[in-house]
UniProtKB/TrEMBL annotation:
Name of the protein described by the UniProt record: Methyltransferase type 11 domain-containing protein
GO molecular function: S-adenosylmethionine-dependent methyltransferase activity
Domain Methyltransferase type: 133-236
Top-level taxonomic group: Archaea
Pfam families linked to this entry: Methyltransf_11 (PF08241)
Organism: Thermococcus peptonophilus
């Protein structure tokens, strides 16, 4: 397996300011691993695999605080994909988030993507031996966090470009190591129809914004989530607050109303996670008895 070294504006600035041999973390602080990079007389940086990153390229990376780069097999590449569906890239937050056409897929103001993920997962608190559905994988932080708590996780991702960036991202490695996470490529709206009734203890539904994936906020989809949950199963539905500040729009209220119509009980807001939690009634309890 070829070695990959990740560099951002932070590492580039450090290399430019250094002489001799420099110790560098090569995996975006995913681990405490360090490697030794040699600074050449002309200011270029020689990596352990023999790749020389010239000074002018280091200067370019040092100015770019919105992109992750990586050194591999003699070359330097952007962790970015341009396709017919748009422009995708890893952003060098710690851990990285993904940006699609300029829109970040995690909250990054006053909270980092890992804290954002834990806020969401904590609302339903997956346990050892439970089965969790993560409807919209992204970089997989939700699935990884749930699996670390002992759950078996099935995670769905529609966009192959997102899956490819997850494969590049060192913080997403656990998705592909054959552990307690199964990745399915497809549209969650269609994939959930194939699951048997009462298959999951927990559903974590973290869809893109409403304007991009309105069908994942629909009552039809909420009824499918209700169907595949076991009695007593828990749901977290990320909503965010788009437009709430400026247009007095309350998207959360609409989600809560549709969840109740789908049969969920205990429906309530969780402000720190910018979403809604709900529960499927236990056997013998009718919808409405708990609200």
């Amino acid at each position: 397996m070829e070695e990959i070294y990740y560099i951002t504006f932070r590492e580039a600035r450090m290399l430019l300011a250094s002489r001799g041999k420099v110790k560098l973390n090569p995996d975006l602080r995913k681990t405490n691993r360090v490697l030794e990079v040699e600074i050449k007389d002309d200011g270029g940086a020689l990596f352990p695999d023999g790749t020389l990153v010239e000074r002018n390229l280091l200067e370019k990376i040092a100015r770019d605080d919105g992109t992750v780069y990586f050194v591999s097999n003699g070359g330097v590449y952007k962790a970015a994909i341009a396709s017919e569906s748009g422009f995708y890239k890893l952003v060098p937050t710690i851990p990285p988030t993904i940006e699609i056409n300029g829109i970040r897929m995690h909250r990054t103001k006053r909270v980092n993507p890992l804290q954002d993920t834990r806020n969401k997962v904590n609302t339903v608190n997956p346990k050892e031996g439970e089965t969790v559905l993560d409807t919209c994988m992204g970089l997989g932080y939700t699935a990884i966090e749930a699996s670390k708590r002992g759950a078996y996780v099935i995670t769905i991702e529609k966009d192959p470009n997102v899956i490819e960036l997850a494969r590049i991202n060192p913080w997403s490695r656990e998705l592909f190591t054959g552990g307690k996470i199964q990745v399915i490529q497809g549209d969650a709206f269609e994939v959930v129809k194939k699951f048997k009734q009462a298959s999951f203890d927990v559903v974590i539904h973290d869809p893109p914004r409403f304007s991009l994936a309105g069908h994942l906020y629909s009552e039809e989809f909420h009824r499918e989530l209700f169907r595949i949950l076991k009695p007593g199963g828990r749901l977290f539905h990320y909503v965010g607050n788009p437009g709430k500040k400026y247009r007095k729009k309350d998207l959360q209220r609409g989600v809560m109303e549709r969840l109740r119509r789908a049969g969920f009980v205990g429906v309530r807001r969780v402000e720190e996670a910018l979403g809604v939690v709900a529960k499927k009634p236990e056997k013998g309890i009718k919808a409405g008895q708990w609200d």
